[in-house]
Recover the amino acids of this structure.
């Protein structure tokens, strides 16, 4: 959890072989502009690389962008890797994820899923809620 003096730290990552990162960069910038410290790992990250970055960067949340269709394999691997490293931090995802997979991903430990058309405000508000980051008025 973040302190009053330090902004919440959010890792934004692109798991898998998908090379399209515009959405991830837009979310990263929105979170940065909202006062979060954002660490962006870039494209083509393995679950192990993402977990290691989360450990090294001591993040408060992880946002994953996935468009490849491998969400049922990659996202749980990341959540399980975090647990194996003793981390209990919220993981959220956006991208092209069929609605019929939302429940399975939630049951596997994904805290939030944001599909195409989700407003940046909704993602920022969600991230504030799960990290305990103050709103600008606080």
């Amino acid at each position: 959890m973040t302190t009053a003096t330090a902004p919440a730290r959010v890792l934004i990552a692109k798991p898998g072989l998908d090379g399209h990162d515009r959405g991830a960069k837009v979310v990263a910038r929105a979170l940065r502009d909202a006062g979060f410290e954002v660490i962006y790992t870039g494209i083509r990250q393995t679950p192990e690389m993402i977990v290691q970055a989360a450990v090294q960067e001591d993040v408060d949340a992880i946002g994953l962008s996935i468009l490849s269709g491998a969400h049922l394999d990659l996202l749980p691997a990341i959540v399980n890797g975090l647990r194996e490293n003793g981390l209990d931090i919220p993981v959220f995802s956006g991208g092209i994820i069929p609605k019929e997979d939302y429940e399975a991903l939630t049951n596997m430990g994904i805290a939030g899923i944001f599909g195409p058309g989700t407003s940046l405000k909704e993602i920022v508000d969600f991230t504030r809620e799960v990290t305990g980051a103050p709103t600008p008025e606080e």
In short: The beta strands are 9-13, 37-40, 61-66, 91-95, 112-114.
